[in-house]
Amino acid sequence: MKEKVVIAHVSDVHVTSQYFSRELEKNVVNEVNRAKPDLLVVTGDLTNEGYLHEYREAQSFLDQFKVERMLVVLGNHDSRNAGYIIFEEIFGTRYPSVEVGPVKVVGVDSTEPDLDDGHVGRLAYRIIENELKDFSGVKVVALHHHLVPVPGTGRERNIPSDSGDFLKLLSDLNVHLILCGHKHVPWLWRLNGMLIINAGTATTLRLKAHTPPSFNLLTISRRQIVAERVNSETLERQQICSVHIEA
Ligand SMILES: [Fe+2]
Ligand SMILES: [Fe+2]
After folding, report:
1. pTM of the complete model beyond 0.90
2. S-S: 110 plus which of 3, 118, 146, 243, CB 3.0-4.6 Å?
3. Are 227 and 241 in contact (CB under 8 A)?
């Protein structure tokens, strides 16, 4: 079994949006491919309005990545206009799960069609519980909406309405890492031993103040999670954490 796993965490791509940048797209694709990740995780908002032609564009975007495994979750923009139907046709499920080396990533749909607000829902809790309760490796959960407020994003909104209950579930399951997107501002919180990493927007100029577009590269072993944030414009890298995992 592979001992160290590299995960590229890309979010809020918004292909076809007026803020989408081909130059940033090229940078992200090249830099991710250079990192040779074992898994690409996309935490939603691949499209802008959930339309079929946008999903086709999103597929062309994803096809450029030289990765064996990919895990994609729905964003609020992808769920618009019944886009969740097309999402399921392309990606198979709104609750994907991938195991690679010592790591298991479970994806969660936190969207409510045609609303920007998030909601996970108790039925989904059972799916996540079944996926993770007996898993002894590094547990990762990926969803679109932020579970904890992100600074520098203005008035707080769209946090899943059941985020307190959901965070408790993840804490009870001893989840090590939560990957989110949505706010287009990268951030990191540590809560009850869980690392919560919010990705910025990877490929758009839909940015808050001076926040640059970015994505994350994570190196995970049974003992450690190291995360780097990569500026999609300058390709500058910054280590944002190196966390020891309790046995
Ligand atoms: Fe977004
Ligand atoms: Fe979003």
Report:
1. yes
2. 118
3. yes
Beta bridge partners of 230: 215, 237
Whole-Å CA distances, 89 to 52, 55, 107, 166: 11, 10, 16, 27
Contacting residues for 29 by C-beta, under 8 A, at least 6 apart: 61, 64, 65
User: Tokens 């618009």 belong to which residue?
Assistant: 80
pLDDT at position 1, please? Answer: 82
Q: For residue 14, how far is its CA from the centre of ligand 1 (angstroms)?
A: 7
183 Cα: distance to centroid of ligand 1 (angstroms): 6
**Residue in 66, 65, 46 with CA at minimum distance from that of residue 56:** 46
Using the predicted structure, report yes or no on whether residue 228 has a pLDDT greater than 70.
Answer: yes
Q: Which residues of 153-170 are buried (b: 16+ CB within 10 A; e: fewer)?
A: beeeebbbbbbeebbebb
Euclidean distance between CA atoms 115 and 83, whole angstroms: 12
Residue 195 token pair: 């690392």
**Residue 247 pLDDT exceeds 70:** no
Give me ligand 2 centre to Cα 1, in Å: 35
Task: Mark the residues whose beta carbon lies below 5 A from ion ligand 2.
Answer: 45, 75-76, 182
Domains of the chain: 5-244 (3.60.21.10)
**Residue 142 CA, distance from chain mean position:** 5
- Return the ligand number nearest the Cα of 110: 2
pLDDT at 37 over 70: yes
What's the start-to-end Cα distance of the chain, in Å? 18
What are 81-94's pLDDT values in tens digits?
999 999 999 999 99
